[in-house]
Amino acid sequence: MAFISSIHRDCGRSYNPIHQFIFQALRARPISSTPQRRFASSSAKGEKTKKKRKARTTFRQHDVRDAEQFALCDAMRYIRAFEVGQAPMSAKYDLAVRFRTLKNGPAVRNRLRLPHPVNTSLRIAVICPPDSSAAASAKLAGASVVGEETIFDAVKAGRIEFDRCICHPDSTQKMQKAGLGKVLGPRGLMPSTKLGTVVKDVAGGVRNMAGGSEYRERLGVVRMAIGQLGFTPEEMQRNVKTFMQEIMKDLSALSDRINKEIHEVVLSSTHSPGFSLSGEFKSERSLPTKDLSVL
């Protein structure tokens, strides 16, 4: 109030009605020593909040043009440098096919028999009547386990002593009543007509499966063992060609409304990094194929 009185003394010599109005307003409203803060309303805060980014509908892929790509023989040469000292049968070549696809789109899944099988030591179980002709032919074809109740009891007890499973159509009802889907389903071992593992010719199924390979798309990528470390470049070429032809058939079988294209093909091994393939068999800097045929 001392400030107001001093103003009043200085301005009192020349009286002005406006001064009197200012003095009355100052006396009615006390002056605070601390500055007042003004806070934004809750509605204003809501307007200033950052908008959430929309989730991606496709898998993130790098530009292939920025990556160095290799011919098949060159990739095999570098991969073998990482596998020095490994047994030819212990390390395997893996092929990864990356897709440009939607995250919630249908997944590619199938099985095929490569010209040069990678894994020939599969244990195959055949679910069929134990005293039938199908059981006898399955045993001759190389099935490791054949029967119905013996397989059901072993699976329920947690003893899964096989890598693949085939079922005869006559035993499908018993298999479903036994409730094997809860155990075999998550492991990808449950026989189904869609996968071609419910067949009448169980012996032919065993022979095809013994050298066959399965693949399934996960997170936009299909991975499969494509060869052993001791394979020659020509054997690898035939396996890669067969696998890529099967992938193209799977893509062509999809609906026209589903856009799924091959983005990149990467070759790797058990202990090596991946090498992006250019689609060529050899390049100018490639070694003779006979040098890659011997470890």
Question: How would you characterize the overall build of this protein?
Answer:
Helix content is about 35%, strand content about 15%. A 6-stranded antiparallel β-sheet has the order 2-6-7-1-8-9. A hairpin with a 2-residue loop joins strand 6 and strand 7. The N and C termini lie far apart (about 100 Å). It has 10 helices and 9 strands. It has about 300 residues and is an alpha+beta fold. The mean pLDDT is about 80.
What's the arrangement of secondary structure elements?
Blueprint: H1 2-11, H2 17-28, H3 42-48, H4 72-82, E1 92-100, E2 109-113, E3 124-127, H5 133-141, E4 145-147, H6 149-156, E5 164-167, H7 172-177, H8 181-184, H9 202-210, E6 212-218, E7 221-228, H10 233-252, E8 261-269, E9 275-276
Parallel strand pairs: 3-4, 3-5
Antiparallel strand pairs: 1-7, 1-8, 2-6, 6-7, 8-9
Unreliably modeled segments: none
Let me know the largest β-sheet.
6 strands, antiparallel
* Helix and strand pattern: HHHHEEEHEHEHHHEEHEE
The count of DSSP E runs of length 2 or more, i.e. the number of strands, is: 9
Mean of the pLDDT scores? 80
How does the helix and strand content classify structurally?
A: alpha+beta
> How do the strands line up in the largest sheet?
2-6-7-1-8-9
Separation of termini?
100 Å
What share of residues is helical? 25-40%
Q: So how many helices? A: 10
Beta-strand content estimate: 15-25%
Large-scale geometry: globular
- Rg to the nearest angstrom? 37 Å
